[in-house]
Structures are given as C-alpha cells and as structure tokens.
Amino acid sequence: MTDAPKILKKVLVTAKGGELLRISHMSSAIGIPMTFALFLPKDYKPKTPLLFWLSGLTCDDTNFSMKAGPIAFAAAEEKGMAIVLPDTSPRGEGVPNVDSYDLGVGAGFYVNATEEPYSKHYKMYDYVTDELPSYVFKHWPDLGPSKSIFGHSMGGHGALTIALKDPSSWVSVSAFSPICNPTACPWGEKAFTAYLGSVEKGKAHDATILVGEASSDSFDSILIDQGTADEFLPSQLKPEAFEEAAKKASVNVQVNMREGFDHSYYFIAAFVEDHINFHSKRLLA
Predict the structure, then answer these.
(1) Looking at 206, 230, 275, 279, which residue is catalytic?
(2) Integer CA distances (angstroms), 245 to 157, 158, 159, 210, in order
C-alpha cells in the first residue's frame, strides 16, 4: 500500500502566497487513514522549521485553520515557518466512540491507549511524536528537521507533555489554556481511566508531574497564556500547579494571565502571533 499523501484541498491563505494543504494518508500507528493540514510559506527553502499545533477537545485540524489561521499563517509566513495541524483522534468507521465530548472521537488526549476498546486505534502519542513528523519530512524534504510544538486546552496538555517527555526532539514549547494537571481534574481522570486503565498510569502524561521532574535546562522558557474568564480555569486547567512545580524544579515558565479572556478561539487569535514569535526566535536562532 502506497503512503503517498492525498491532497484533499489546497488553498491560498496569505497575501504573500502561502498555501494551506489538507492531506489524507494511511497511518501505520493509528491503523486507518488520518487527515492533517500543512501550512507552507511561499517559496519556502531547505531547512524551513516546523511548528506543530495540537487542538483541543471536539476539534480537528480545521478549527485552528479557520479561526486563528488568518493571523497565525501570516505571522508564520513572515518568519518563514511551516505549521502542521494534526487531528485530535482517529475517526471514521470502526473507531470506538462514546456519546461524550470529552472521550473518544475528538478527544484522543495525545496518549497511546492500552485499554479496550481504544487500544487498537487510539495511538495519538506515537502518531504526533514519531509517525507524522517523519511522514512530513519524507514527503516535504525541504521542511525541518527543527521543530517546535504548541496547542490549546487538551492540545496544550499534549504539547507540554510531549515536549517535556522528550525535550531533545523539540526546540521550544508553548500553550494556550492547557490542562496542566490532568491527574487532578475531571477531564484527565476520565480520559486516563478509559485509555490507560487508571489515573495512576496517567501520571506519565501529566505536565505538572513531568515539569517537576524536568532538568532546569530542558527549555530556556515555556510560554503559557491563560484567560482569567476561562470557565474551565478553576476545575480543569490548574496552571498554578504547573507553575509551582516548575519553580521547584528551576524550570523557567512564563504564565500570562490575560484579563477577561475565555477559553475560545477568540483568545487564541488575540495572542497567537506572540506564540509564533516566541517559537521563531528559537527555531531560527
């Protein structure tokens, strides 16, 4: 079976000629076809750095593209960076799902599920950390190898944990409204129990625990933006726990509490250029 990318859609998205491709490919990690999006600046050159965006619960690659893309793609174009936007879970015929927004399709939590019925297809950690970067480098050889990662909510959890578990593979990491301490919040407890069998096993994917164990020089800085009017802030996100653990481990973290902003893509769009600039300074250094 060929692993050639199937271009589902190609559209100009920046005034300077940057393109967004929506791509389907057969995933060996997931076991079914997966869809991702790829922003390419016009006339990109060899060693163009990559920025991976991980979306949150209920989302796919289109949410960021449509709601924050106009600002993010223009900023990435200006810096000469590409952006990869994976899906948040497997989806399609034969993929287990439940009638709940925070588990199953659209809610893969960026882990490798070990429990039935999810263990066959829900391998999002391997997909995002290994298969998808390798696939992009193979089929777009002028991209990479330098790469960074950021995300929102569940995707912020994914970005932080993926980077902290393997800091040598990522130049930098940032997040919007991340689920910082998932073993101590309802979203994380539900996901880890279903996918991994227990909250205890979820500790290997808890950003607060991981940053507490991290080397002080893992990253020169970790950037987090969080809205003060976010309805999920008290019960689900817990940035204060992450900040406290980072301080104890002497890991430099910048947490910006943005007055009046909520959990929506309006918040992301307002500050995404700051995140693009944060990563470009490190990827292009």
Answers:
(1) 230
(2) 15, 18, 17, 9
